[in-house]
Amino acid sequence: MKQLTKMIGSLATKLVALLLTLGLAGSAWGANEAKIGTTEYATLYDAISAVGVDGTVVLLGDVTTSSTIAIPAGKDFTLDLNSHTLTGTGDECAAISVGAACLSVMNGTISGDAGIESESSSAIIALNNVTITAKYAALGLYDGGTVSAVGCSLTATSRYATAAIDASSGLAEVTVEDSTVRVENTGAVAAIVVGSSDVSIIGSSVRGANS
């Protein structure tokens, strides 16, 4: 019996070593959500807390969060969705909120009641090849900020949505290039609500529910 137990233990050790060699132990067994370089993190929150200036957080799979992922002041990094989907399930909550920070998001999908919201006029948000589908605003720039969207699809689906891009604060600078901005329900005010914000549309499609 002791010999059998020893053999089982040895096999288990070899199996774990093999999984680590193949890079499968974290993603398949531990279901880590994100990585920075070769270091994996159990949750996206952990990775965002750890990332340094100009660093990149890469999703390892689809991530669902019941609360808004808040990017705190002073952060400056890239979130590579890596062809995965970040879903916020909080009621009337944004999937991501950005304070006085610099956030670049690329290569994937964000969905939820709301997409990305600014929490500061100093927020800098750069989107590249990102699809955001939200019940309400895909981009809610309620506190202003500087935002660019290149090669993106930004959609608001609810009849109660104000717009796909809500820049009504008048404090935002927005550039939309080679992208699609639309609302899917006639209850929405417009695809983009500008207020007195500075909004530039370059080579993009902007569509209301009836167009």
Major sheet details: 14 strands, mixed
Low-pLDDT residue spans: 4-9, 15-29
**Number of DSSP E strands:** 20
What is the average per-residue confidence, as pLDDT, rounded to a whole number? 86
Radius of gyration: 20 Å
Helix content: 10-25%
Number of helical regions: 3
**Sequence of secondary-structure elements:** HHEEHEEEEEEEEEEEEEEEEEE
Strand percentage: 35-45%
Structural class: alpha/beta
Q: Which descriptor suits the 3D outline? A: globular
Distance separating the two termini: 75 Å
Commentary on this structure:
With 211 residues, the protein is α/β, with parallel strands linked by helices. It contains 3 helices and 20 strands. Strands 1, 2, 3, 4, 6, 7, 9, 11, 13, 14, 16, 17, 19 and 20 form a 14-stranded mixed β-sheet that branches. It has a 6-stranded parallel β-sheet with strand order 5-8-10-12-15-18, with no helix packed on it. β1 and β2 form a beta hairpin. The relative contact order is 0.09.
